């Protein structure tokens, strides 16, 4: 059984443990992640199973902005392949809808085909590339965009009902 809930500063150590494994060559610093969790412009969630955090994800959506960015999403190896990534990702999109966002953007590594497939299945489309964006590995970033209104309409998401994990 797993629970999806808003992240708190108390989750920082567990988030950083996942961050360092998932993004070994370009992990965020603990200071940066603490700032992300504390920012009023962001909404971070964690998925917890058996008292252990198995994943996290973050959305940047400043109040009044019609655009938002998926900042990050990462899972432990044991949480992959069970729909956890999709659940946590959809929660961020629902939160963006609640905040009045119309457009959601994200960057994904060119060599991360699993994540690309998840994003495409939710309606994201490639709109550009950033050459060697992940400099430590020389990997390009694919820039993707989602029309959030179309996503919500296709799924019957009403912003008034969305975001059980707010």
The CATH class label is: Alpha Beta
Count of individual domains: 1
**Largest sheet composition:** 7 strands, mixed
Percent range for β-strand residues: 25-35%
Characterization of this structure:
This protein is α+β, with helices and mostly antiparallel strands and 166 residues long. It has a single domain, classed as Aminopeptidase, CATH 3.40.630. Helix content is 31%, strand content 34%. The chain is built from 5 helices and 7 strands, in the order βααβββαβαββα. It has helices at residues 12-22, 30-38, 84-98, 113-121, 148-155, and strands spanning 2-6, 42-49, 52-60, 67-75, 103-109, 125-134, 139-147. It has a 7-stranded mixed beta sheet with strand order 1-2-3-4-5-7-6, sandwiched between helices. Helix 3 (84-98) links the parallel strand 4 (67-75) and strand 5. Helix 1 crosses helix 2. The protein is globular, with a radius of gyration of 15 Å. The protein starts with a strand and ends in an 11-residue tail after the last helix. Mean pLDDT is 90; it is low at 162-166.
